[in-house]
């Protein structure tokens, strides 16, 4: 049986409520857009396989509830992720201001070496814009992240941003990937690898938790 | 009851094996009709035999035409013993009170709001959620539907009613069916506050109540279905966080809109026991146990499976299962005390039940229940009586190549 993918890993979408995390995800995985999508309660995920430089990458993308108090639930997923999208809404200054908080949560809960990019979504709503593109770029630069303005509505920069984060994760795991090229029949499960790595060095003190 | 404490390094589990006896067959009854409802009302307009009526609502629900009236009683807006005259003056008072609170947020100027980040935050969350609540329902579809404005205004007014809690995601899901049934802003608001009295703990900042309910659900499942419980534990899903959405908004996203109307009126009766909503959750898990266990599901697939049950279940079936489980537990002679307390079946008086919920969760003593850990635990686990599964450490697997 032909293998279905070469590499598997997890990405995570975080950011304030209503910035369009679920819409970004649906546009990317199903090429659908529902302007009145229901809000996310708890967590959910979708899968998609993409081809990056000849490598078949299976990505599992986790979508989270945006309101802060539900982080009790959602932050469990941070450390399972190899890449994180920090999303704000260009029509909401508040959601942009909060990126600082989201970024510090990532520092606290995500594994070292997790790859991050900044997304300013709803770029189609120019008439309601509150956050300039340069502000996004500046913030991304401060944090050393790549930056994309996107629109799930018009399908602008969706594939580009998801592919970019995927590439960053692949680059960060170059060593494992080189191994993969030598033994090309194997599949590399970065998600599992990270978890086993933590178990091996004794840092995975998970009680009956969901990670 | 056999309590077995397996003491393997890094693996510790308590099993409760209780003889439950055969599961009874439950038949749902026909909904309470308007004629039947009338038979409970005396000449003063007071409801007689409230307990009998609640039992009927529990076992059959209400016919749609009755909901508008009956929900006001179930949600504590109308006292059961109020006369028609009482209700007239209550309505006047509550209408005034509502519009007074509504005026409070309506009269905040743009300039004032700039200096009120809390109010600004609530407003923005509400706007975002109103635009994505039940938009397929006729009452909320389209962009200029008056239903959207009513939903928005009642939620904003709730922020004034309970500014400490304010607006938290999920509340719009709770108000939407009530507003749909009431077709009236003031009535819907006061019924909503009644519902919130029962569930406001779910939305609190600390999320302690949600954590407690998930661990209570785990306790119940351990008695009702230890095999399923062990299976979920082995897949790192034992803390049942996959059921978070069920408990937060009382299954609102799991059933069709019409089914939710029935489910909620049944739950609002407070029958047949406290925390019956947890047995509803057990009923769903019971329905799905084969699908979950006879598969090679891992953590991800279990979550996916649970999330995708939405709109696929029959509420009548689930209610029958939940009631059957309740009867099994009620007839069980050797039920652990903490389960008895949880379901109000203990004869001993439990300490200080909270006064502000219709069916208060019974406090469980710390030695009886271990709060399942929803946070990243930072310290190695302490050996105690907690339900606790540590992943088996496999230090040899430095790279895991999936098959």
Short description:
The complex is a heterodimer of chains A (211) and B (403). Chain A is an alpha/beta fold and 211 residues long.
Provide the succession of SSEs of chain B: EEHHHHHHHHHHHHHHHHHE
Number of strands of chain B: 3
Structural class estimated from helices and strands of chain B? mainly alpha
Inertia-based shape of chain A? globular
User: What is the H level of CATH, i.e. the homologous superfamily of the largest domain in chain B?
Assistant: Ypt/Rab-GAP domain of gyp1p, domain 3
For the termini of chain B, the CA-CA separation is 42 Å
Oligomeric state as shown: heterodimer
Class per helix and strand makeup of chain A: alpha/beta
Radius of gyration of chain B: 23 Å
Order of helices and strands of chain A: EHEEHEHHEHEHHEH
Q: Which fold name is given in CATH as the topology of the largest domain in chain B? A: Cyclin A, domain 1
- Please state how the strands of the largest beta sheet of chain B are arranged side by side: 1-2-3
Helix content of chain B: 40-55%
Report the span from N to C terminus of chain A.
30 Å
Q: Find the count of extended strands of chain A (DSSP E, 2+ residues).
A: 7
Individual helix count of chain B: 17
Pfam family, one (chain B): RabGAP-TBC
Biased composition (Polar residues) (chain B): 376-385, 393-403
Subunit structure (chain B): Interacts with non-phosphorylated form of RAB8A; phosphorylation of RAB8A at 'Thr-72' disrupts this interaction. Interacts with ARMC12.
Domain Rab-GAP TBC (chain B): 61-271
Which features characterize this protein?
heterodimer, A: 211 residues, alpha/beta, 36% helix, globular, B: 403 residues, mainly alpha, Helicase, Ruva Protein, domain 3, Cyclin A, domain 1, 2 domains, three-stranded antiparallel sheet, disordered C terminus, G protein activity (chain A), magnesium (chain A)
